[in-house]
Amino acid sequence: MIDLSHFKLTLPVDKNGKASGKADEVDNGKLNGSPGYSSSYFYSDSSGAVSFHSPANGATTSPGSGGDHTRSELRELYRVSGPTEWTNAIGGTMNASCRVDKVAKKSSKAIIGQIHGLDSIFVLVYYDIDKKTVEAKFYTKPKSDAATAFVLANNVKIGDRITYQIQWIGSTASVTVNGKTVNRVPAASWNKVPVYFKAGAYSSASNKGNTAGDATDVAFYSLQLQH
Fold first, then answer.
1. In 3-state terms, what secondary structure has residue 109?
2. pLDDT for 56
3. Were 198 and a residue from 114, 130, 167, 190 both cysteine, which residue would form a disulfide, CB within 3.0 to 4.6 Å?
4. How far apart are CA 121 and CA 16, in angstroms?
């Protein structure tokens, strides 16, 4: 259901399985080897979907310096060996079908898809449990918190199927959710910025002070990349 040949996986625990410190990764070789990788954070559920489980209290990718958010999330490798990012001159499309099963209590949002640069977010797609919406957020320029958000689906309940596409080719970036599309022409400062796709369960809340056992859970029925 998901071709993992161009992904690695970030976990919400450290290399010792502890919910603190630097998040561990499952590299491409282990993810695609035999018998493959499965854990309580990444597994096939009873519906046949691939489930991503991200405890609200957990390890983070850049402890003490980056975002203090936990994630069970795939990170694209454009090339498994060599440059692992792509640019708008190459272009990329990610298509996915998923459902959000749970959003951590302190977090109003479950981030389910991204285009991310090496040090900047470009596009986020997220489910807002309070508003029952799926939204796309486009960041104005690299290394900036300024962004514009668009509501692309309303009255989306926990467990409802969400089908989305994130695309950036040449001068146009777009997000489609359940058939509704928003197109944007990014600032020229984004041109040639190396980026990659991400998909999974990423909590928008801090990993500190959450209720024990709380989590964000997202299950994917399909996930496809095209360049």
1. strand
2. 87
3. 114
4. 29
